[in-house]
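Record now logged underneath.
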Amino acid sequence: MISRPMIENYLKVRRATEKLVEPLEVEDFTVQPIGDVSPPKWHLGHTTWFFETFILKEFKENYKFYNLKFQEIFNSYYKSVGPHWVQENRGNLSRPTVAEIFKFRHYIDETIINFLEINNNPKIEQVLTVGLEHEKQHQELLLMDIKYILGANTIEITYSDSPLLTPLPKIDMEFLPFAGGVIDVGAKDNSFSYDNEKPRHKVFVAPFKLANRPVTNGEYLNFIEDQGYLDPAIWLSDGWAHKVEQGWQAPLYWKKIDHEWYEFTLCGMEKLNPHTPVTHISFYEADAFALWAGKRLPTEFEWECSTIKDHKNWEWTSSSYLPYPGYQREKGPFGEYNGKFMCGQKVLKGGPKNHTRPSYRNFYHPEKRWQFSGLRLADNI
């Protein structure tokens, strides 16, 4: 039998996902305003597909799929598993219904629990762990996508009474010195990690300074008022092109109403709080702000060796998302999880409580803004 704590954790994670969609109306579950955003019902189905495909299909003898068509609809990008529905077209599907997807989830949960209670294969436990970490990632993606869906509506909508980001203590920004040197980076062997965090290896980090807190809305507003969005001298060429094409004038979700700045949050449209960490900015905006401020973005290794603990956002680094020396992709379909995206993206560090280990490497294309991304400044010594 798989350990009882593991089974209880499975149920806890699965319930947490469903808790996130409780405030939604059924009409909210299918909307897809842009290609990056997936309908909430797709997340519910995909995270369930993961357990059906990689545990029940692989390990349960004579397992019959709940609905064979779900194998294509809810496959994200695992081409070695089979065909998958195009991401940009997920919102085109009115079926399966939300009710049917919940039935799918509950059927798989019951089948998984019954199966785990009579099996003790350590390989199953390894895959189960990956599946739960995967679902935690999708819990964050759900909030990102729900926020975009609700924010695209002209009717003001409140999803929650509890803000994701709270104001920082009113402390001056200071730059803390770090000696650097030859340091160990990457995942340690005694806890869960993804293959893109391995192998643990040594790198040289020159002495540097890192801000004691992230950049706030108020500080970013100073950048806007100083015409930061109109000065090509502080922007990367690709960033300036995206800014012009997309018409960026402020972070995503900021809106000027009667000469005052407001920000759409999961609590609805609120007057901009100058002490809250700035979020929903692209790498290009973060880089331009840093240059405007006379500083720079930290590298992922500077961030990792600094032992920062007060992060609330993902924070852009200057590091490209590349394999570590000696990196080897996982064998089988899980090799598609991270490795095939190691081109043209930037590493982010920090993030929510589900991803607090220093070695965790999030990654996005530099122009993306719908994720919870902000910045922290660094400087040379």
The chain has a mean pLDDT of 95. Residues 122-151 form the longest helix (30 residues).
